[in-house]
Amino acid sequence: MGKTFQKPEALSDQPTHYCPGCTHGVAHRLVAEVIDELGIRGRTVGIAPVGCAVLAYNYFTFDFQEAAHGRAPAMATGIKRSRPDLVVFTYQGDGDLASIGMGEIVHAANRGEKFTTVFINNAVYGMTGGQMAPTTLPDQRTTTSPFGRNVDEVGMPIRVSELLASLQTPAYISRQTVILPKYIVKAKKAIKKAFTYQLENRCYGFVELVSTCPTNWGLTPVDAVKWAQEHMLPYYPLGDLKSPE
Amino acid sequence: MSKVLMKGNEAIGEAAIRAGALNYFAYPITPQSEVAEYLSRRMPEVGGHFLQGESEVAVSYMIFGAAGCGERVFTTSSSPGISLMSEGISYIIGAECPAVFVNIMRGGPGLGGILPSQADYLQATRGVGHGDCRLLVLAPASVQEAVEMVMTAFPLAEKYRNPVMVLGDGLIGQMMEPVEFPDNLKSAPSNKDDWATNGMDTRGRKTRNLVKSLFLDPVELNEHNLKIKRKYEQMEREEVRFEGYNQDGAYRALIVSFGTMSRVCRTAIDIMKADGLEVAMIRPQTLFPYPLQAVRDAAWKKGCQAVFSIEMNMGQMVEDVRLAVQGRCPVHWYGKCGGEVPTPEEVVETVRAVVQ
Question: Would you list the DSSP string of B49-117?
Fold first, then answer.
């Protein structure tokens, strides 16, 4: 009898360091499945961010580089420009990408770099212990906004997908989520589409994944999903924002 | 090949191409923007890759990305730009990737000015970035030497898997001089399959490679730093370069000077010689590793009464000269850092004030 279900070849056997209920594991698996299905493991280079996913390379089985905080898109640019035959993706959180790395992501997208970004948006800094991110929702409490995000002082959360979609350069920009099984198939489709556009040398691909961070939200994994549904999804609506077609 | 008359910045760009460095990422900054202008035309002709980055910070990571793939890659910038690249330089050192950074120095601090200086001596020789960093630093004194050093820099970076900096002052970049290009560099990095993320399939590798600078285990990080330290020690044994001038006979004073400043000092030494005062010079060609022994031997030579560190800054290399001399004879400094280059007469006056 043949196997009906197995771990993707692109995923390693190592147990992850992620917290219970964290959605990084699902996101990693989707990326690995897409890489397997496209048969590109042997020519893919991933770029790890600084944040919870800094050790992402431990969970994948292909070449990886580790960037400084926010600089993954610049590294990806250097790789892809010097080796256009490689498949390159950045895997970045919202502190990394939307705060310190805002310059790099905007310019990489605007140049139409032929790589792919998987953007994990959980509205908080994870690894450093739950500080406010540019994506933290209004009134959301974090360790550096103990009274809730005061939008009069620090502005409204940034919708990165919308911001990137406003650029005139053709790109594939999509916001999906991995908080519940019903969304996961769509999320995988978007990731696959983004990689496919890269393989066709067509355009930059950006897939935002609305995610949970039960530990830093101070919620159980189940309550975190509920909170994301009630608060994240209305502010960060799902769907394709831009397509090169 | 015959000589051609070329501006330093353009010659630097051409030298890199002839060294097989077909990846160049840069951000414009005076006084070296001509390198980017030259290579934006030239790279497409040779099938290379040119990209103007959005900032020096981003550029340093474009360098990192390509270097991590084992590709020959370089950038050029000037002082404030190098400060911005210092983050990336530290990461590249930590991840042990070869790359070449050219700094055509201008005056500082801050925006400073756009005229030549040597004010980044300490920044360059102390590794530029955070952590236990060192760069191999080459200091050209002519356009010809800039070409040769750029071409040497790539194999050196690959030998040590560590960035190399070519540290020239604004005059080296802006001046036109006759240049003869050496033969194209043929050697390719030999062992990159052991570490570079150059594609498992395309290189027929069975295991994947990681390019990273994070070592959370304190024992592992210490070992990593010891390994890097051993590379610096090897550089100190194998890469020290310097040139002596008027050093063979007896002399009463020693000048230590590098880059453009050393050419002025040469003239000053000739003037003093004609006047009956013998003065020798050591011109460091590598600033890290520093020719400590050569400076020490020259300073300790019988009859040498004083040592002068002459620099286009407020006294930076003088610290290394003092380390070399170890208090055996007085060490003096003279220099300027506003864009003016000290004249031979000023150098003569400085020496004459101490050594009659």
Answer: EEEE-SSHHHHHHHHHHHHHTT--EEEEE-HHHHHHHHHHHHHHHHTT---EEEEEEB--STT--SSB-
Out of B57, B66, B201, name the one closest to residue A78 (CB): B66
Helical pair B143-160 and B8-18, crossing angle rounded to 10 deg:
40
Encode chain B (356 residues) as per-residue pLDDT tens digits: 689 999 999 999 999 999 999 999 999 999 999 999 999 999 999 999 999 999 999 999 999 999 999 999 999 999 999 999 999 999 999 999 999 999 999 999 999 999 999 999 999 999 999 999 999 999 999 999 999 999 999 999 999 999 999 999 999 999 999 999 998 887 765 668 899 999 998 888 889 999 999 999 999 999 999 999 999 999 999 999 999 999 999 999 999 999 999 999 999 999 999 999 999 999 999 999 999 999 999 999 999 999 999 999 999 999 999 999 999 999 999 999 999 999 999 999 999 999 98
Residues of A in contact with B62 (CB under 8 A): 74-75, 77-78, 81
Check B62 against A83: CB less than 8 A apart: no
Q: Do A65 and B62 touch (CB under 8 A)?
A: no
Amino acid at A172: Y
- Residue A70 sits in a domain whose CATH number is 3.40.50.970
Which architecture, in CATH terms, is B242-352?
3-Layer(aba) Sandwich (3.40)
Which residue of chain A is at minimal alpha-carbon distance from B61? A75
Domain that holds residue A159: 24-242
Q: Does the residue A68 lie in any domain? A: yes
B4-238 under CATH 3.40.980.10, yes or no:
no
Number of domains in chain A: 1
- With a threshold of 0.90, tell me whether the complex ipTM lies above it: yes
